[in-house]
Amino acid sequence: MEEPDTEPPLVVVPGADPSARQLCFAWGPAEVLVCETRFGRADAGEGAPGSSRVFVVRRDQDIYIQTLRKLFNESHGIFMGLQRSEEELAGKSRKAQLVQVSKNYRSVIRACMEDMHQAAVSTRDPALQGQYSTQVSILSAMELIWNLCEILFVEAAAAGLLLLRLLDWVRLHVCDVDSMVREVLSSENPSKHKLFWNVVDVFVLQGRMDEARHLLSKEVTANPTSMNMYKILDDLMKKMPMPSLGNTQTLTELELKWQHWHEECQRFLQDGTFASNPHMESICKILVGDEDAILEKKELMTTWYHFLVTRLLYSHPTVKPMELRFYAQSSMDLFLGGESSPEPLDMILMAAFEFEMHQVIKECSIVLSNWWFVAHLTDLLDHCKLLQSHNLYFGSNMREFLLLEYASGLFSHHSLWQLGVDYFDHCPEFGRVYLELHIERIPLNTEQKALKVLRICEQRQMHEQVRSICKIMAMKALRNNRLGSALSWSIRAKDAAFATLISDRFLKDYCERGCFSDLDLIDNLGPSMLLSDRLTFLGKYREFHRLYGEKRFPEAARLLLTLMTAHIAPCSFWMTLLTDALPLLEQKEIIFSAEQTYELMRCLEDLTAGNVDKQKFQEDDVETTKVEMLRLALARNLARVIVKEGTVEGS
Amino acid sequence: MVSVINTVDTSHEDMIHDAQMDYYGTRLATCSSDRSVKIFDVRNGGQILIADLRGHEGPVWQVAWAHPMYGNILASCSYDRKVIIWKEENGTWEKTYEYTGHDSSVNSVCWAPHDYGLILACGSSDGAISLLSYTGDGQWEVKKISNAHTIGCNAVSWAPAVVPGSLIEQPSGQKPNYVKRFASGGCDNLVKIWKEEDSQWKEEQKLEAHSDWVRDVAWAPSIGLPTSTIASCSQDGRVFIWTCDDASGNSWSPKLLHKFNDVVWHVSWSITANILAVSGGDNKVTLWKESVDGLWACISDVNKGQGGVSAVTEGQQNEQ
């Protein structure tokens, strides 16, 4: 047995006096029931009654948050697209495709954040507002992490490009300074604003040189004395070598240029060029990558990873992916400076900078409240063929493990379960059996829903489940006295026993009421009539009635006889059939031939002589009368038919 | 995030001994020392009392829902030596069968997989296990295994239905040849596996590892692997996971999940068998999960306590 890395979290169930009782539990399809009890049979009947409450405990409640619905639905679409995407594409185009998928996921997260934010702003309920705001920050953190993973793992940005991407990343996500920037820029006289230099610093720290220069130019127009210093600084900032996207220079070229430029900045600094203007001097210090100068601007950077990127920009812009880990750890240490300890988010980002993919996934699993994030991210990384290369023997199973967890969670939702089906489809090892186990638990509240579930099972050849669902629906219909529906369900389930049961009910109803219900169904049984003998009889018997109704008496008569002689009809029904024969016997036209009449008589004798209800026949007056009437009618018919058959035409 | 989403106030007048959700999670059945069995509709976080069933003359220990294809059927067993089967007919719940064939308290009832028909196994303190099979028209056939466990039987649990051999669809109406098995735990410290052969129930295996009364056994649902898994817990504080790798069911090997400090009363598998819940004497329900390399780790504790609910994010120990 393993010892887990962290203490298993405790969920406390409200109750009184923990010392007195124990907890009894049971699994539901999607929850755990917990109630207080005291085990031990010896206590039978004694002791204080205690709490009479049962608690329903569940996981994955996030699926019920309305505003996250879009996240689940749209990411499902992206997921499916990814599974079906062209695997034949290789190299660059495949990578571009995967990066696009990653961007799609991120835009869904952002859209959801936007919705959540709107919801938070428009609600008046403070509790709800708090909930929404929490959700917004969780989504924001997710997007931050995903974006970094996209840069480092999916796109696997190489040195040069890596820095550009990280700069974008920081600019996008460190938003705390945005309002300050806006305020200064929109003021009448920005250079007079007390936060002016802060904003310039922000631009410099984020490598936004053009914007910094633009602001600086405003300052110098207001303050012409610093014109010289300004010109030099502006020039330095303009010349700063940056990695370019167009591949117009190699890494070595860039490094050389940068070295040169760096030395130039150093010289101006050492010469005391900016000594009289502390603001400009500190900017120049930043340009040469002076850590202390950069750290002084802590509040403007707000996070250690911003600090990391700024450091890299001004000390090692050609940083290689594998070198990140060293800078990351020291950046975090320097930034936090022993005053505060890293939060879970920090640890996750650190793991990413260290290229510990599994660690990222593990930490995210622990911190986040549902499986959505890790399931989709891991799936994407798996498609990038990154998990296998990590040589952990459950590498490929981890994707499936997470997808199974995520999809299982969806199944307890009344409509999201349909998404879960698709996820299970793409889990090659256990997806099918998980689907089988979960799909049986979907409440079949309406016929429509049952048909939907059925279609899903049929498409996947899940025959057991099809049968099971049809049987359940048939039983339900029977309980509600909807015989027609029950019959069609049991035919679909190919359940002969049930079909027999329902046919018996139909026949019983007929005997009591003299007519059939659900004629349409019975008339159109077709080959499914053969499912059970009783059902066949029901179909044929109805056919008899139809023939009779259409006055096709000879055919009706023949059918009637066959029903008895071929033993399609159960013995219990023979009396009814013979009674049905009466009107045919009484017709003016002779319908039954001599032979047929003899057959009928034989049937009657079989029925009355030494058979099941003999006792009953003798006691029941109605029955005796019926038998007598039949005998009379048969005899009369026989007489007529002998004469008719014996008569030669024309004589 | 694990959280309490609903609290059902059952208004039982005495200790509740068991609570079970039906197949779909829409209904809740509870039973208590107050001799009653109650059924609630718990859809959408609500609670509506559907039935208050009286018929037992002693504390009711367990309830079990039958598969919905047989209708709405519930079984209950009690200290009064009776097993009662209740059925919903025309919107009302009624007693449909009462079995009084045991000489002392009936401790556990468990319905067989629906593929076998409507069959109920009952374990009793008189050491016997009864199997009640519905034969149609309100009739039940009884088979009894006397002296299944000396002193008493505390728990019964069915193995999932697995069709041996071919996967070809059987012709309609014909039942495939299932091999029916179930596990039982008793006061003789043993877990036993029973198999039906020629319409007779025979003891197939004796699993020995516990040093005190076995309180509960739970056979894990099948996820398509050729292995079978049983969890057992005992007064000796231990929970074992038994696995059998071969299809003939001959060699079972135990793995100790954990040794608790107190009696372990109850074990149960989630519906996809990936989580095992264990309730111990120390007011906790612990949830255990098998990591992919075959080791078990505790993933969560559900505990009773004072005051409000504090839901803590759940950890997943998926890679070690």
Automatic annotation (TrEMBL), chain A:
Its main location: nucleus. Pfam families: Nucleopor_Nup85. GO terms for cellular component: nuclear membrane; nuclear pore outer ring. It is found in: Nucleus, Nuclear pore complex. InterPro entries: Nucleoporin_Nup85 (IPR011502). GO terms for biological process: mRNA export from nucleus; positive regulation of DNA-templated transcription; protein import into nucleus. One of its GO terms (molecular function) is structural constituent of nuclear pore. Keywords: Membrane, mRNA transport, Nuclear pore complex, Nucleus, Protein transport, Translocation, Transport. Component of the nuclear pore complex (NPC). Belongs to the nucleoporin Nup85 family. Functions as a component of the nuclear pore complex (NPC). This is Nuclear pore complex protein Nup85.
Automatic annotation (TrEMBL), chain B:
WD repeats lie at residues 9-50, 53-96, 207-242. It is found in: Lysosome membrane; Nucleus, Nuclear pore complex. GO terms for biological process: COPII-coated vesicle budding; mRNA transport; positive regulation of TOR signaling; protein exit from endoplasmic reticulum; protein import into nucleus. PROSITE patterns: WD_REPEATS_2 (PS50082), WD_REPEATS_REGION (PS50294). It comes from the Eukaryota. One of its GO terms (cellular component) is COPII vesicle coat. Its main location: membrane. GO terms for molecular function: structural molecule activity. Pfam families: WD40. Keywords: Lysosome, mRNA transport, Nuclear pore complex, Nucleus, Protein transport, Repeat, Translocation, Transport, WD repeat. The keyword Mitochondrion does not apply. Functions as a component of the nuclear pore complex (NPC) and the COPII coat. At the endoplasmic reticulum, SEC13 is involved in the biogenesis of COPII-coated vesicles. Required for the exit of adipsin (CFD/ADN), an adipocyte-secreted protein from the endoplasmic reticulum. As a component of the GATOR2 complex, functions as an activator of the amino acid-sensing branch of the mTORC1 signaling pathway. The GATOR2 complex indirectly activates mTORC1 through the inhibition of the GATOR1 subcomplex. GATOR2 probably acts as an E3 ubiquitin-protein ligase toward GATOR1. In the presence of abundant amino acids, the GATOR2 complex mediates ubiquitination of the NPRL2 core component of the GATOR1 complex, leading to GATOR1 inactivation. In the absence of amino acids, GATOR2 is inhibited, activating the GATOR1 complex. Belongs to the WD repeat SEC13 family. PANTHER family: NUCLEAR PORE COMPLEX PROTEIN SEC13 / SEH1 FAMILY MEMBER, PROTEIN SEC13 HOMOLOG. At the nuclear pore: component of the Y-shaped Nup107-160 subcomplex of the nuclear pore complex (NPC). The Nup107-160 subcomplex includes NUP160, NUP133, NUP107, NUP98, NUP85, NUP43, NUP37, SEH1 and SEC13. At the COPII coat complex: interacts with SEC31A and SEC31B. Interacts with SEC16A. Interacts with SEC16B. Component of the GATOR2 subcomplex, composed of MIOS, SEC13, SEH1L, WDR24 and WDR59. The GATOR2 complex interacts with CASTOR1 and CASTOR2; the interaction is negatively regulated by arginine. This is Protein SEC13 homolog. It comes from Pipra filicauda (Wire-tailed manakin). The lineage of its organism: Eukaryota, Metazoa, Chordata, Craniata, Vertebrata.
